[in-house]
Amino acid sequence: MKLNCKHVWEHISEYIDDTVDAKLREDIERHLEHCEICSAILDSTRNILVLTADDRTFELPVGYSERLHERLAKEMENSEKDSTKE
Amino acid sequence: MRTTETHEAGLIARVLAGEKELFHELIRPYERMVYLTLFSIVKNEAEAGDGAQQTVISAYRHLASFRGDAKFSTWLATIAINEGRKRLRKAKGAAEESLKEQAASHEGDFTPAPLTDWREIPLEALERKELREALRVAVAELPGIYRQVFALRDLEELSVEETAQALGINPGAVKVRLHRARIMLQKRLVPFLKTTAPARRGFFRRAP
Ligand SMILES: [Zn+2]
User: Fold this and answer.
1) How far apart are CA A19 and CA B199, in angstroms?
2) Is residue B156 part of a domain?
3) Given pLDDT bands bounded at 50, 70 and 90, which one contains residue B159?
4) ipTM given for this complex
5) How many domains in chain B?
6) Same domain, yes or no, for B149 and B180?
7) Which residues span the domain enclosing B115?
8) Which of A7, A13, A36 to mutate to test the interface with B (most CBs of B within 10 A)?
9) CA–CA separation, B164 vs B172, rounded Å?
10) What does the pLDDT average to over B177-187?
11) For chain B, is the Cβ count within 10 Å smaller at the N or the C terminus?
12) Do residue B183 and residue A72 have CB atoms under 8 angstroms apart?
């Protein structure tokens, strides 16, 4: 089947996740070979996902981990004192 | 991943048997996931930090109820999501928020934005701080139902199945929302990505 651009866009997310079936994958790839528009959309979407997964994009607040474990340690201490409560 | 699960199961058993200190070790790999899950719901650094603490404490208190039919990470994500939703309700009033989100899920054009004169963005462009900032803003501005799926899948890298379990929706809905979230982000960030292209082009092309 010959896909048009709109078909490709509809499957772009699944294509990135590699969850389209083999036949559709082949059709999409054939389309991408000659369609610059879809290739650019695919590249830009992929780049956004690479950037999202990069730890420097979404950073944790300074001291987050320390505060978390301190609070947890306090909780453990308290639950030891009176294990009947809570 | 099998070994991670075996290792975790061992830790859990020991914590429950009284070696509670080991709970610190158990949650360490998921600190980031817990925070980002909370943040994707409450969108506030301080609230997300407090919510993360509450999530971890709640997980500690209820560890005995973890059955192992889900992965520990999914179980923890579920607690984080509930904690986030509780905080959101307190802050806003649930009705208002869910109405807004339902409305948002029905509107909108989920077609990507075409780029002209595009070529693959140079890696150094991805290094730019402004691009990261633009992405953070764009993610924050996604409607909640899309932002939460996007955060679990693409930021915290849970599987479709785990994301569905954690959010209490079916895998089909995860895929649809993820697709829309990605397209919306692509659309929002294209102007940003585009600005890198001309420079590159200018560099490679000789002036006429
Ligand atoms: Zn096309």
Assistant:
1) 36
2) yes
3) very high
4) 0.89
5) 2
6) yes
7) 100-192
8) A13
9) 9
10) 96
11) C
12) no
